[in-house]
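Dear colleagues,

As part of the handover before I leave the project, I'm documenting each prediction I ran so the next person doesn't have to rerun anything. This entry is a single chain, and its sequence is reproduced below.
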Amino acid sequence: MPDVGDSTPALRSPRASRTARIHRPTAPTAPTPGVGERQWPDASAGADASTASDASTAPDASTARPYVVLSCGMSIDGYLDSPSPQRLLLSNDDDFDRVDAERAASDAILVGAATIRHDDPRLLVRSATRRAERVARGLPASPTKVTLTRRADLDPGARFFAADDAEKLVYCASPALESARQRVGDRATVVDAGPACDLRRVWADLAARGIGRLMVEGGGTVHTQVLAADLADELQLVVAPFFVGSSRATRFVGDAAFPFNEQRRARLAEVRQIGDVVLLRYALSPRFGQAADGVDHDPKGNA
């Protein structure tokens, strides 16, 4: 069964590891929704959009959740990568710095397990100044790292699991919990995400852990699932000035019944040229622009 965002076999074989911590979350007490607070969609949002999650363990429809920012770079023809095994750079130095600032403003950064295998990201704040500012506020230098997996096909030697200052959370489908424990050892906290890796359950558990702002960096399957389930507040989409031109590459999103369509258009809140790329910022919920501290980050002030 495919993993979250998986399309190819793992690139590395996992090493032997120590015993992992396994946490089975209890849904937090549901607060009364405030102004602009969105109800959870009726559809199940698991690691596979066609697989229903365990409704008996899903959080209540009004359960609090983080403010969710989807961050993505793509080619003009909508691809995240190329057929080449080499990483495709879809941005420039100035935009990489912007993304670093977004990371520094977040409480957690999430990628799918396939992204860890294929790109081996560090998911750390790079700027020494931003790291120091976070520490001065009593925060870790970098946000919590989060990944989703259904098969526990994870390499404990990946940079995601490096011994840095960031907490690491692995949300794993229930059938693969023991495998995840054996693979990652004590390098991360393994969390039961339900039979099919239910995104609503993951969001609720992150909120219970104090995650107020979640940055989702991909890959394509994760973006598809989050958007199709209507579980994002903001989309930051950067378009690179070239084409990939191959259907063997990964698209920004796959097939799904998205809540934004011809009848319900997303609001384009900002267009910004950053060197040779362009940033398109879309408002996907009434909470758009609201940080965890309640500060309005909508450039137009009309969220």
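The first strand starts at residue 21 and ends at 23. Residues 39 and 62 are 6 Å apart (CA to CA).

All the best with the project,
I.
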